[in-house]
């Protein structure tokens, strides 16, 4: 049998479009913990978080006054501070105002413990099913962030820094398949 390998850009679609992301976020509002789940999925998407980065977020990482969040990247990634947009800031306030605890973690379960990786996987998959978006995983949202930024025309280096990639080859995937690069080829 011939050993055939595909380039990374030849994989199946592993991200959500803007409209699919909106469907996912709307579906998160119809869950048992709508404020937490909406914010969780929004922040994973907006900041390109890995699951472990999301579950490790602390309330102290969020600076509401200055609309900033400290992203402590894992896997030897570049840790950076990201801005928080208005709708995300409102979602953070709504979620934190609904909590009656002094626990340090941003995302907690009903027992007052930080969400686990398995819980985030379950939340993401089940909300994806509610939104009729099959095979949605937390890493799908990280990829969706990268593709969103590439489709907006941001350069490879900015996307690399934003996602915390040390090696640009990990970021190149987003810019290689972005359709907007081809828009004016035949006009």
TrEMBL record:
It holds the Pfam family Phage_integrase. Keywords: DNA recombination, Fimbrium biogenesis, Transcription, Transcription regulation. It comes from the Bacteria. Residues 11-187 form the Tyr recombinase domain. Belongs to the 'phage' integrase family. PANTHER family: PHAGE INTEGRASE-RELATED, TYPE 1 FIMBRIAE REGULATORY PROTEIN FIMB-RELATED. This is Tyrosine-type recombinase/integrase. It comes from Maribacter polysiphoniae.
């Amino acid at each position: 049998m011939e050993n055939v390998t595909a380039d990374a850009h030849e994989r199946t679609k592993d991200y959500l479009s803007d409209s699919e992301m909106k469907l996912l976020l709307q579906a998160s509002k119809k869950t048992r913990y709508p404020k937490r789940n909406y914010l969780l999925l929004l922040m994973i998407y907006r900041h390109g978080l890995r699951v472990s980065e999301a579950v490790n977020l602390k309330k102290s990482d969020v600076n509401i006054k200055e609309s900033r969040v400290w992203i402590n990247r894992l896997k030897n990634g570049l840790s950076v501070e990201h801005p928080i947009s208005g709708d995300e800031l409102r979602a953070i306030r709504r979620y934190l105002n609904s909590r009656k605890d002094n626990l340090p973690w941003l995302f907690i379960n009903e027992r007052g413990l930080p969400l686990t990786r398995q819980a985030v996987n379950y939340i993401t998959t089940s909300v994806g099913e509610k939104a009729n978006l099959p095979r949605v995983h937390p890493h799908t949202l990280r990829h969706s962030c990268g593709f969103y930024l590439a489709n907006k025309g941001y350069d490879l280096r900015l996307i690399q820094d934003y996602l915390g990639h040390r090696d640009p080859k990990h970021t190149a995937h987003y810019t290689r398949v972005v359709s907007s690069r081809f828009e004016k080829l035949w006009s």
